[in-house]
């Protein structure tokens, strides 16, 4: 019986040693994961205190303003405060007419003919710019993800215009004079613009000054009143890059 007892004791000791080894390995893996996460957070966020910094962002927007699809460039730039928590600056976007082929067919005001036709085919252009304010922070449990909540208040101005051969007027008058006459002097309109948004960016571990992002926005245009449309409000989405010190 003594050999059996000895075997049981040895087997129990081996099993206990293996269990302790596995437990130590698991704890080591957990420690390594925690260390890696801490390293990411430390490298993704600046360690120095930056009470005042700067930021510049450039992006390309897909627009769904005035109930149609278009696109154009956008920007924001200004100063950051309290390690990037608050932002103040300027922001805006453009909707260039030449790169947006969408056309709008309308009847001229009072039935006035233009080149023997009362139906006009127009293109649109315009833009928005204003004072930009934002709250920016990293998610506590996902420090690689930054969140920006922007609000921009300024002026929106969009209009409609004759294009192509229609810009060669039949009587030599400036095309702007014809547009005013054909569109009841409301070929364009300026109004208050108020835009809110949500921006999500990726904090790059080794490049704290650079941040790719995606954002969504909504623009209101109270007081806008052009001949073709009484509002130029709508949503938009952007893809862009943000650069700065103290992001």
Describe the structure.
With 247 residues, the protein is of the alpha+beta class. It has two domains: 1-44; 49-102 and 126-162 and 186-245, Porin, CATH 2.40.160. It contains two helices and nine strands, in the order H-E-E-E-E-E-E-H-E-E-E. It has helices spanning 2-44, 175-182; strands spanning 52-63, 70-81, 86-95, 104-107, 119-139, 142-162, 188-202, 210-220, 234-245. An eight-stranded antiparallel barrel has the order 1-2-3-5-6-7-8-9. 29% of the residues are buried.
Number of helices: 2
What is the CATH third-level topology name of the largest domain?
Porin
In total, the number of domains comes to: 2
Order of helices and strands: HEEEEEEHEEE
Tell me what portion of residues adopts beta-strand conformation.
over 45%
CATH class of the largest domain: Mainly Beta
